[in-house]
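Quick one, tokens below:
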């Protein structure tokens, strides 16, 4: 490039830089104009987000303190009577969805197995599992006619799945089976595990 041209172009460049600086002169605290703000801001209450003071609650806060006497999850004390091995953390399950091997190794059913807990597990099973897995666990529930791939608990591939594995599958789901952790609390899940283990024996 000729020297003359360099002078010419650098002049243009300086003008461009100056323009760019002018056009960036905007108040960063000004959000600008919003078109249809209720499309961006939720109308309902959000637990961790609040745009305006709440006119109903004390101190304008949408989040309220738990009512007096509320029991924190990790202090949920379960008592099953004889043979109880429940620890204080029964209600907190931290093993991530992709770590079923850990669940298999470390989990033990804290709910003692007796007629009462097994009967409760059966009720829960009928409510949450039977429509797919069938009354005897053979994978022949009414929904399974349409929702393919429901296994038979007593078949060779499934009869030896251990308690931790089953608890984890109920909580997080597996492949075509959906998670149930949000619908069934841990105590109930462990009771269902007892009942599934009975079905695994083909009983
Ligand atoms: C919508 C139908 C459906 C419901 C409801 C359902 N399951 Fe399943 N379940 C399946 C299907 C399908 C599979 C096979 C998953 C796969 O491997 O694709 C399965 C697999 C399983 C397995 C074997 C997991 C493995 O390691 O392969 C267990 C144990 C199980 N379910 C237990 C339960 C229990 C207990 C309930 C009730 C809380 C339940 N399921 C509810 C459809 C269902």
């Amino acid at each position: 490039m000729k020297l003359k041209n360099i002078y010419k172009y650098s002049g243009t460049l300086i003008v461009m830089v100056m323009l760019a600086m002018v056009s960036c002169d905007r108040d960063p605290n000004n959000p600008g104009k919003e078109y249809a703000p209720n499309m961006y801001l939720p109308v309902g209450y959000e637990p961790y987000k609040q745009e305006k003071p709440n006119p109903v609650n004390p101190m304008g806060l949408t989040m309220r303190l738990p009512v007096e006497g509320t029991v924190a999850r990790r202090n949920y004390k379960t008592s099953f009577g004889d043979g109880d091995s429940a620890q204080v953390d029964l209600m907190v399950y931290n093993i991530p969805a992709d770590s079923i091997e850990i669940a298999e190794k470390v989990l033990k059913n804290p709910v003692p197995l007796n007629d009462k807990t097994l009967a409760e597990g059966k009720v829960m099973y009928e409510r949450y599992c039977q429509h797919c897995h069938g009354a005897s666990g053979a994978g022949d529930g009414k929904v399974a006619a349409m929702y393919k791939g429901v296994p038979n608990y007593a078949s060779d591939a499934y009869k030896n799945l251990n308690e931790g594995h089953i608890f984890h599958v109920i909580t997080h789901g597996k492949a075509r089976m959906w998670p149930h952790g949000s619908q069934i609390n841990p105590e109930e899940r462990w009771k269902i595990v007892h009942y599934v283990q009975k079905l695994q024996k083909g009983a």
